[in-house]
Amino acid sequence: MKIATYNVNGVNGRLPVLLRWLEETTPDVVCLQELKAPQEKFPEQAIRDIGYHAIWHGQKSWNGVAILSRSGQMKEVRRVLPGDPEDLHSRYIEAEVDKLVVGCLYLPNGNPAPGPKLDYKLNWIKRFAAHAQTLVNQDMPVVLTGDYNVIPTGFDVYKPERWVDDALFRPEVREAFHQLVAQGWTDAIRKLHPEDKIYTFWDYFRDAYGRDAGLRIDHFLLNAAVSGRLRAAGVDRHVRGWEKSSDHAPVWIELANAK
Questions:
Q1: Stated pTM of the model
Q2: How many Cα neighbours within 13 Å face the side chain of 127?
Q3: Which residue in 255, 253, 243, 248 sits closest to 33, CA to CA?
Q4: Residue 64 in contact with residue 58, Cβ under 8 Å?
Q5: Contact 126, 176 (CB under 8 A)
Q6: Which of 7, 34, 95, 189 has CB atoms 3.0–4.6 Å from 248's, for a disulfide?
Q7: 94-111 pLDDT per residue, tens
Q8: pLDDT at position 72
Q9: SS in 3 state form for the chain?
């Protein structure tokens, strides 16, 4: 089974890129972030036409998350992260898909930092970690994936000294992420590529993609019930070079079939 995550940075404006990538790579399950589309403007028919069923949580102009499945066997579990009923951002959706629990997230950016946006980010991570704690020891396989907006270590960014004051790399943000992983989650990319330079995002400015001046901020976390099935993981880096592409590239894992 192949599962992918992709921050599309506008699902309608970049729909040709998304459809091209889906048709070329045919992942079984796909998590999308930053739809930037209200609920009624999600391109369900175009996605259905190439063989995918979808559930999504849209929001006008900002945020938005979706889960796609080629099998169509999805049961939505939740579309709001617990812990703050006043938080109206569309940043989390969770479903049971092909005998997996899949959580798709778009974690807040947090900039400018320090300030209220960083405070919101840290509170969101705290809520997410509390929810993740309820999932990590389940017998059912759980995959939590998406744009975490966290650079875990200096190895995960080009010239880390330039990011020390950024909300993606501030010490308190990295510490919150490391505490999350320490619950018992496996960082799939680092599990299989512990010493490789791997980026998932390249800014549009200063020819960042051409210079490979990137960041690793899109992650897969796997609980113990599924981590042993991990067989491959990677980034479809070339997609970032397509015309009118997102500033993120798709990230994917492959799991062995359950016994």
A1: 0.98
A2: 18
A3: 248
A4: yes
A5: yes
A6: 7
A7: 999 999 999 999 999 999
A8: 73
A9: CEEEEEECCCCCCCHHHHHHHHHHHCCCEEEEECCCCCHHHCCHHHHHHCCCEEEEECCCCCCCEEEEECCCCEEEEECCCCCCCCCCCCCEEEEEECCEEEEEEECCCCCCCCCHHHHHHHHHHHHHHHHHHHHCCCCCCEEEEEECCCCCCHHHECCHHHHCCCCCCCHHHHHHHHHHHCCCCEEHHHHHCCCCCCCCECCCCCCHHHHCCCECCEEEEECHHHHCCEEEEEECHHHHHCCCCCCECCEEEEECCCC
CA 4, CA 26: separation in Å to the nearest integer?
Answer: 10
Q: Would you state the structure tokens that stand for residue 86, as one six-digit string? A: 């006043």
Q: For residue 66, give both structure tokens.
A: 């979706």
Q: Tell me: pLDDT of 51 over 80.
A: yes
Q: Which of 56, 38, 46 is nearest to 18 (CA)?
A: 46
> How confident is the model over 120-146, as pLDDT tens digits?
999 999 999 999 999 999 999 999 999
| Two structure tokens written together for 166 | 């950024």
**Tokens read off for 101:** 């629990």
Which tokens is 151 given? 């650079």
Nearest to 128 by CA among 146, 141, 112: 146
Q: Under a CB-based contact definition with an 8 Å cutoff, are residues 135 and 103 in contact?
A: yes
CATH topology of domain 2-255: Deoxyribonuclease I; Chain A (3.60.10)
Q: Which residue has the tokens 């020819």?
A: 207
What confidence score (pLDDT) does residue 259 get?
76
